[in-house]
Amino acid sequence: MPPVLKVHELRKAFGTARVLNGLSFQMRQGEVISLVGSSGSGKSTALRCINFLETPSSGEIEVMGDAISASQNERHETKIVNATNIRVFRRRIGMVFQSFNLWPHRTVLENVTEALIYVLRKGKREADETALSALSKVGMANFGHRYPSQLSGGQQQRVAIARVLAMQPKLMLFDEPTSALDPELVGEVLKVVRTLADEGATILLVTHEMRFAREVSNRMIFLHKGIVEQDARPEELFRNPASEAVKRFLSSVISTVA
Predict the structure, then answer these.
(1) Domains in the chain and their CATH numbers?
(2) What are the ABC transporter domain coordinates in residue numbering (predicted)?
């Protein structure tokens, strides 16, 4: 079985600021990988490039055998090869953002059924059933007729996760899903992510919750200056940091994972 995701020599610059500098890694079905590293190391940018919310400057991304590549000419204009696969990628990839991005004028149920009806073209009854099943998985089935303003931040983020789950993605991207939450609400969202991981979901996670990352991940990829500094199982990364950059980072967070 081919990898679910292959990233090869991915580069991204914003003007003269180079954020990704040749990022390469692969992940298999059912793996949970955490991207970790200091702020500015390129973690969130990598996720946004994988889903083509940001256009890479160059490199190749392959999802379940379908590839898109980018390159730049001498005028720094980006050329995309197989751009039609972007739509394919977005059908296969679900992304949970730092902010919840729920429609404030739609109920919880309507937020989840929106894409099912207008993207997947499901009928309302089937969409409602699918949405309620997804909401049940995150403990929000009884909140279907509430509006986002009537929910806590943790509840809103669980609805955002349900919205992704309802689309049955092959790969789930989580971009610091707890960073916008009050500390007492973090646990309820991490519990949902842990359950999905235990059920075999393929998850690429950006997080500063290092204890959680250590416990839930099959691998941890440490990014430094936009490249992979170390790619290892959690215990290996903590026991044998591959560079001074990894050592410095771990020493700054060690009290949170002890």
Answers:
(1) 5-257 (3.40.50.300)
(2) 5-250
Percent of the chain surpassing pLDDT 70: 98
pLDDT at 49 over 80: yes
Which H, E and C letters describe the chain, residue by residue?
Answer: CCCCEEEEEEEEEECCEEEEEEEEEEECCCCEEEEECCCCCCHHHHHHHHCCCCCCCEEEEEECCEEEEEEECCCCCEEEECCCHHHHHHHHEEEECCCCCCCCCCCHHHHHHHHHHHCCCCCHHHHHHHHHHHHHHCCCHHHCCCCHHHCCHHHHHHHHHHHHHHCCCCEEEEECCCCCCCHHHHHHHHHHHHHHHHCCCCEEEECCCHHHHHHHCCEEEEEECCEEEEEECHHHHHHCCCCHHHHHHHHHHHHHHC
State the pTM of this model: 0.93
